[in-house]
Design goal:
Length: 336
């Protein structure tokens, strides 16, 4: 089978196509013919081995796991012994866990893992965009616990996590019901964020959001490009700062531990997301209800994995960059 592999840590140029044996499902596993996968920040971090501590899991001097890709949408191709609840030909979506394996024509996953039916009415391309981003956003939205009178700011709202966080927050607290929801994004996505329910939208290329006179109960940095020290003045007393990134010197989880231990007028939290069937079913239900909209930046074949990765690392994407390991019509899979 065709797969994107990397045999050394480094930039996007270490990725290449290779022919690998088609995997055979072990007992309790299903084999998926991958119709759509993605390139995301997680893939980039594992490929570059940044932060360095990730090498404790992926391999100290060279990668133990050659194939990246932790989001997949495809068709069940074969069942391992003892598998129930799935059938050959069924359209499914799944989060493979770290470090991935989805950037290939075939993938085996545990049937009791984070894999389940594809959302009805969505193509494979659309469905694969509603996995990692919503899963990560969910952990932070649950920590925010939106309520009437609360003011929330989402930084990095143009990316997959930020876009899904804005949608999920507005689903829980519709506009006009007393929760202020502001966002920071790049030029060209201001109107999109307004359409998704954000009120004040800061274009970070034109203004510094940390200079605002607005004050917030929660600041959620969905891209990890700011720091608590810069956002702290914007927090109300009792307010909370959260980031998806470790930060310089792993400061964000360390600050969160200190905040939990000693308290303070302003708090730092570092929620840990979970990927399992229950979380996946929750995301699928929201997708089928229209509460989470697929946000697709571009769709590329697996042969363009290097260009796709370079684009993701340019930080110019809006939503998700989708990769097609197998030829697929854009609308294919809606009725599978």
């Amino acid at each position: 089978m065709k797969a994107a592999v990397h045999d050394a840590y480094g930039g996007p140029e270490v990725l290449r196509l290779d022919d690998l044996p088609v995997p055979e499902p072990k007992p309790g596993e299903i084999r998926i013919r991958v119709m759509a996968t993605t390139v995301n920040r997680t893939d980039c971090g594992f490929r570059a081995a940044t932060p360095f501590i990730t090498r404790a899991f992926t391999g100290l001097t060279r990668p133990k796991f050659r194939v990246l890709g932790n989001e997949v949408a495809g068709i069940v191709d074969k069942l391992g012994d003892g598998v129930t609840g799935f059938q050959v030909g069924q359209a499914v979506v799944g989060m493979t866990g770290d470090p991935g394996g989805g950037q290939a024509e075939y993938l085996c996953m545990k049937a009791k893992g984070a894999v389940g039916p594809k959302p009805r009415g969505l193509s494979f391309i659309e469905a694969v965009t509603l996995l990692d981003g919503p899963m990560l956003a969910r952990a932070y939205v649950r920590a925010i616990a939106p309520a009437r009178g609360m003011a929330v700011l989402v930084n990095g709202a143009s990316g997959s996590i930020g876009l899904n966080a804005v949608q999920w927050l507005r689903h829980l607290a519709p506009k006009g019901e007393g929760m202020v929801l502001d966002a920071v994004c790049k030029t060209g996505t201001v109107d999109l964020l307004h359409d998704l329910g954000a009120e004040r939208v800061y274009d970070y290329k034109r203004e510094d959001f940390t200079a605002t006179d607005a004050r917030y109960d929660v600041i959620f940095d969905a891209v990890g490009r700011s720091r608590y020290r810069y956002c702290r003045p914007l927090l109300k007393d009792g307010g909370t700062y959260m980031s998806t990134e470790l930060g310089p010197g792993c400061e964000n989880p360390l600050l969160a531990l200190r905040s939990a231990a000693f308290g303070g007028r302003k708090k730092i939290r570092f929620p840990l997301p979970g990927a399992n069937r229950k979380v996946l079913d929750e995301i699928t239900a929201l997708a089928e209800a229209g509460a989470l909209r697929p946000m697709i930046d571009r769709v590329l074949p697996l042969e363009e994995i290097v260009a796709a990765t370079e684009y993701v690392e340019s930080e110019e994407k809006v939503g998700t960059v989708v990769i097609l390991p197998n030829p697929l019509d854009e609308d294919a899979g809606r009725e599978v």
